[in-house]
């Protein structure tokens, strides 16, 4: 049985000078100390202390061995997205980051699957960057769940998602730049309340805008953190769709009829919540996600899946790795060549 983690982050070693490619102030870079610890930096500010697995592939592989993880999809850290920068500058930055992620994963190509990032603020440049990265060896694309005030159902982002479907590139959508920051000043509330709300907003936006009617059904799209709060409140959205014309104005089907259009990871940390998620999504659409190596991640990868009630061994194997293997399987054309 394969254990495959679809939600794990990397911050390749980037100097402050390299980080300044994307931002004059608040440049993202990595400060590595003599004692082996590190600090994610935003310009002069210390953003977050980090563990070596974030930038050291040997350490990551040792951690994976110790925790029984066979494979990981490796994505950048949202601090690195660069969506606020001028598009051409962001495109050059994404190329640099993507090259570093490829180099990071080259140590163990059968275990570390590189995911690229793109300048999502510019649809044409984002599509070109995704195509370029896929040709260079990236196995998926990691995107933030919004670009400023544009949600995932924004026409330009829908066009990008359709492009990913056409070139067979899986998409991992991660919450970031959380709403309501002025009312979430402490206790990591942006992570605890903001992130699940962001993801729910993204999923409901795609459902209620009718965007899933315009995006090819072949798109492979996964939301982090179990899709945030959407599964628990899907009944509320369905009830609203049935009872208010303004809710159903743009979508021909109620929200619950679109759950087969995306996947979610398993990072909900409670077997009871995971049970509900599996009932909402089906056993084929939930995949192990740990948020490695960050402190809010699942420290014993797959513990919630193993403790989830009502799953047989075959279903548990799907959640632990089988679904992820299929999700990241290289797309093939009818002739059998990579798409
Ligand atoms: Co994450």
Describe the overall structure.
With 339 residues, the chain is of the alpha/beta class. It has twelve helices and 13 strands. Helices cover 38% and strands 16% of the residues. The mean pLDDT is 96. The longest helix has 20 residues, at 189-208. It has an eight-stranded parallel β-sheet with strand order 1-5-6-7-10-11-12-13. A three-stranded antiparallel β-sheet has the order 2-3-4. A two-stranded antiparallel sheet has the order 8-9. It has helices at 16-19, 57-67, 87-105, 123-136, 155-167, 189-208, 211-214, 234-243, 245-248, 271-281, 303-307, 313-327, and strands at 4-9, 28-32, 38-42, 45-50, 71-75, 112-116, 140-144, 146-147, 150-151, 171-174, 221-223, 263-265, 286-287. The chain has one domain: Metal-dependent hydrolases (TIM Barrel). Helix 3 packs parallel to helix 4 (123-136). Bound molecules: cobalt (II) ion.
């Amino acid at each position: 049985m394969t254990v495959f983690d679809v939600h794990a982050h990397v911050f390749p070693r980037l100097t402050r000078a390299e980080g300044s490619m994307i931002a004059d102030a608040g440049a993202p870079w990595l400060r590595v100390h003599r004692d082996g610890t590190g600090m994610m930096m935003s310009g002069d500010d210390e953003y977050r202390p980090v563990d070596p697995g974030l930038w050291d592939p040997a350490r990551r592989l040792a951690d994976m061995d110790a925790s029984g993880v066979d494979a990981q999809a490796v994505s950048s850290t949202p601090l690195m997205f660069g969506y606020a920068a001028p598009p051409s500058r962001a495109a050059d930055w994404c190329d640099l980051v993507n090259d570093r992620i490829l180099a990071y994963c080259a140590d163990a190509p059968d275990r570390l699957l590189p995911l690229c990032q793109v300048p999502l603020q510019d649809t044409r440049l984002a599509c070109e960057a995704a195509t370029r990265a896929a040709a260079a060896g990236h196995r998926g694309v990691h995107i933030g769940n919004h670009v400023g005030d544009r949600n995932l159902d924004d026409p330009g982002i829908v066009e990008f998602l359709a492009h990913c479907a056409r070139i067979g590139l899986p998409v991992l959508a991660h919450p970031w730049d959380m709403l309501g920051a002025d009312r979430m000043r402490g206790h990591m509330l942006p992570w605890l309340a903001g992130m699940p709300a962001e993801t729910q907003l993204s999923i409901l936006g795609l459902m209620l805008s009718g965007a899933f009617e315009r995006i090819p059904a072949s798109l492979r799209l996964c939301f982090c953190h179990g899709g945030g709060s959407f599964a628990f409140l899907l009944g509320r959205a369905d009830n609203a769709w049935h009872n208010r014309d303004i809710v159903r104005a743009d979508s021909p089907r109620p929200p619950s009829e679109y759950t087969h259009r995306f996947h979610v990871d398993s990072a909900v940390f409670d077997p009871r919540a995971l049970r509900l998620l599996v009932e909402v999504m089906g056993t084929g659409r939930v995949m192990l996600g740990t948020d490695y190596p960050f402190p809010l991640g699942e420290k014993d990868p797959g513990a919630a899946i193993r403790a989830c009630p009502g799953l047989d061994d075959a279903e548990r194997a799907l959640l632990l790795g089988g679904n992820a293997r299929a999700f990241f399987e290289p797309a093939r054309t009818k002739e059998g060549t990579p798409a």
